[in-house]
């Protein structure tokens, strides 16, 4: 089961593609066709409803294979939405590479002149006052080397001025490079085709890449490929969750799927642990027991009866009291894993409770979230499987910065795995960094982190995953894909809550 593929520089990507495709025009076209088809399928799955039944589409087509990917994708999109109106702004047809020209003629034959307008790329400035539902840009990609040509620069500037509900780049936004550039196409989403190239993750390019979607076309599928064993930077695969789609054995028992203990909640944050527990029970745990403030337990039990709710003593602030340890300890023998922190607060008694539970359960894997993340609790973890799920503010309690180097250092210092939440979540075990790019601003709301911790806690119970880093990768992918499904259904990223995203946990696979 492969969970991630390497992120390569443009030069590494060219070399690797050459090793796979050689000089075969047939293999190159086959890869182009697969990339274009997967791009169209992914785009339509996430944004098809948002674009509507008769979208106006502008394709920006360069001479290289990136333009070919875009043409194949546009052909498929327009076949799937027959009332699409397509405008192609294309470089001189004579300059198209043979495979790109082949993709162009295939698209042209499909339209037979109907609903198809073709202009030269240099005429793009003449349509700046028009608006489109979708702009699909395939101008340069990894073949681009600075300095930028004046005609390309002008085309990018004009494209950025054209209004569109959705702007998408193929592979890399035009003009993006490993160093900052003066003109870059500003995309709402970038589809990395076949290989995820490192420039899309550079901080200076992030305002231009938008959402990043990685399309696996089989370049790294071979188990014999060990060329990247020493690589540090990876991206989570789109099929990372496929193992969850398999049928369970017909002879099964709930105890065979793990028993997660959740410790969290407070009077200050009563909803967090409910979201946390709901995510955990939906992620496949056989049993979930949640230890929560006693005055909240009845309402939680009514709201989610699938979870075992244990009411615990509270301190004067309404948080879990240290006295609750007896209730937890009496049941610890039945636990498979722990998830602690959601809605907990930084109450002295609650943090002391977490530390005591950690000291008494050395054999159990654990997920620490929110206020359970700190030097005091990490010192109590000792040698065990630990996953932390902080946002950047919480991470700064245990690190001096949020760079890749800081992430690796913290993982090694505390002997843990960390899923550092952001628009691109980075999951590390101190050896590698895996980027999970699924999801969208749908998750930029309270409760998203509680869902992630619940999913991770449930997954860390599983015998199918190799350690806490795997649980972090799969949880981040699962949450992100669920958010995409929620957006696809709502057709907007605004009228949604974290509870709405929970409803799509099953369809997010």
Which features would summarize this protein structure in a list?
509 residues; alpha/beta; Rossmann fold; UDP-N-acetylmuramoyl-L-alanine:D-glutamate ligase; 2 domains; twelve-stranded mixed β-sheet; seven-stranded parallel β-sheet; 18% strand; elongated
State the domain count: 2
Please work out how many helical segments DSSP would assign.
16
- Per CATH, the class of the largest domain reads Alpha Beta
Major β-sheet strand ordering: 8-1-10-19-18-17-16-15-14-11-12-13
* Architecture (CATH level 2) name of the largest domain: 3-Layer(aba) Sandwich
Mean pLDDT: 94
What class do helices, strands and sheet pairing give? alpha/beta
Q: Which descriptor suits the 3D outline? A: elongated
Fourth-tier CATH superfamily name of the largest domain: YjeF N-terminal domain
Strand content: 15-25%
Question: Helical content, roughly?
Answer: 25-40%
Straight-line distance between termini? 16 Å
Poorly predicted segments: none
Largest sheet composition: 12 strands, mixed
Radius of gyration: 25 Å
Number of DSSP strand runs: 19
Examine the coordinates and then state which fold CATH places here, giving the name of the CATH topology of the largest domain. Rossmann fold
Question: Can you give a write-up of this model?
Answer:
The protein is of the alpha/beta class and 509 residues long. It folds into 2 domains: 4-235, YjeF N-terminal domain (Rossmann fold, 3-Layer(aba) Sandwich), CATH 3.40.50.10260; 257-481, UDP-N-acetylmuramoyl-L-alanine:D-glutamate ligase (3-Layer(aba) Sandwich), CATH 3.40.1190.20. It is built from 16 helices and 19 strands. Strand 12, helix 8 (297-303) and strand 13 form a beta-alpha-beta unit. It starts with a strand and ends in a 7-residue tail after the last helix. The mean pLDDT is 94.
